């Protein structure tokens, strides 16, 4: 009997994440989604099972800007699943004001970067055990160098700068991961998608986004189909350190990183996340 491939999609109860889950379920995958709201998670499962009666879908509830929740979600996943073919790091939200989480991290950096890194590390063992597994991290176009001495700095803060900082860090981290870990981590940029992620932007940016979405925005279901297609292409090709914009593989982005940035960011991440690394995890390979 063929075992269905299994995907874990963070931020899978809305937007691109839910659309990708629907596409993968239609293609015969088993899917686990994460979301912050238990009610919304249950509604997502009910909606997708109603649309696809044979679908095998479940939800793990947690706020992935809170590292204790990330740790718990990972532990719950490992307890109930023996394989993981696709880890789709998609969860994101934009906090307009400089805000620190209960654990002391800048909120955008916590959900966009630290939560993703901790989850990837926590699931590294099951990813290694699964043949042809992969990690795919979803980013946008914004790039802003992160201050590696003070990643939660309020200096020069804006939500767009914060977005650019964690997206720069995530892509530098992906390159370092690929130097250290055999499981491929690739980067996906879905383009301008008609989601609500930028709905809280102050004017005039909100109006600009609304107009751009009306003219050029990708419908959410199409974005999910495209992401699922790219995940399948990456699995088939076993590509590593790839960057995709929508359905096209593009040249590596110029992140303007320094030669030491990858190792420095990795070490910084280990220091920041050490309290939430469980004793049973294998340390990331050197």
Name its key features.
single chain, 286 residues, alpha/beta, Rossmann fold, eight-stranded mixed beta sheet
Would you give an account of this structure?
With 286 residues, the chain is an alpha/beta fold. It has one domain: Rossmann fold (3-Layer(aba) Sandwich). Helices cover 44% and strands 13% of the residues. It has 9 helices and 8 strands. Strands 3-2-1-4-5-6-7-8 form an 8-stranded mixed beta sheet, sandwiched between helices. Helix 1 links the parallel strand 1 and strand 2 (30-35). The chain is globular, with a radius of gyration of 18 Å.
Topology:
Elements: E1 6-9, H1 15-26, E2 30-35, H2 38-51, E3 56-61, H3 67-80, E4 86-89, H4 107-122, H5 124-129, E5 134-138, H6 159-180, E6 185-189, H7 205-216, H8 220-237, E7 243-245, E8 248-250, H9 261-273
Parallel strand pairs: 1-2, 1-4, 2-3, 4-5, 5-6, 6-7
Antiparallel strand pairs: 7-8
- Secondary-structure element series: EHEHEHEHHEHEHHEEH
Q: Count every beta strand, where a strand is a DSSP E run of 2 or more residues.
A: 8
CATH class: Alpha Beta
Instruction: State the major sheet.
Output: 8 strands, mixed
Global geometry: globular
Strand order of the largest sheet: 3-2-1-4-5-6-7-8
- Gross CATH architecture: 3-Layer(aba) Sandwich
Question: Averaging pLDDT over every residue, what do you get?
Answer: 90
Give the helix level as a range of percent.
40-55%
Radius of gyration: 18 Å
Strand content: 5-15%
**CA(first)-CA(last) distance:** 37 Å
Q: How many DSSP H or I helices?
A: 9
Number of domains: 1
The CATH topology, please? Answer: Rossmann fold
The unreliable regions are 279-286
């Amino acid at each position: 009997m063929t075992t269905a491939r299994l995907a874990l999609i963070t931020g899978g109860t809305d937007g691109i994440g839910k659309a990708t889950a629907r596409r993968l379920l239609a293609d015969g995958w088993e899917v686990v989604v994460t979301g912050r709201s238990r009610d919304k998670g249950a509604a997502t499962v009910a909606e997708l099972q109603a649309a696809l009666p044979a679908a095998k879908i479940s939800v793990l509830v947690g706020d992935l800007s809170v590292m204790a929740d990330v740790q718990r979600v990972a532990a719950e996943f490992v307890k109930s699943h023996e394989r993981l073919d696709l880890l789709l790091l998609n969860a994101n939200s934009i906090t307009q004001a400089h805000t620190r989480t209960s654990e002391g991290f800048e909120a955008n950096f916590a959900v966009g970067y630290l939560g993703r890194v901790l989850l990837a590390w926590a699931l590294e063992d099951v990813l290694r055990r699964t043949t042809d597994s992969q990690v795919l991290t979803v980013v946008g176009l914004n790039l802003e160098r992160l201050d590696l001495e003070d990643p939660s700095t309020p200096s020069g803060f804006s939500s767009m700068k914060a977005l650019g900082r964690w997206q720069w860090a995530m892509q530098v981290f992906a390159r370092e991961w690929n130097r250290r870990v055999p499981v491929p981590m690739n980067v996906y940029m879905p383009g301008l998608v008609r989601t609500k992620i930028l709905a809280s932007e102050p004017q005039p940016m909100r109006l600009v986004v609304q107009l751009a979405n009306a003219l050029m925005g990708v419908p959410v279901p199409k974005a999910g189909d495209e992401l699922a297609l790219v995940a399948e292409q990456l699995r088939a090709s076993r590509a590593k350190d790839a960057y995709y914009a929508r359905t096209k593989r593009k040249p590596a982005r110029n992140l303007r990183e320094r030669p030491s940035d990858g190792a420095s960011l990795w070490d910084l991440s280990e220091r920041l996340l050490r309290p939430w690394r469980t004793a049973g995890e294998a340390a990331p390979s050197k």
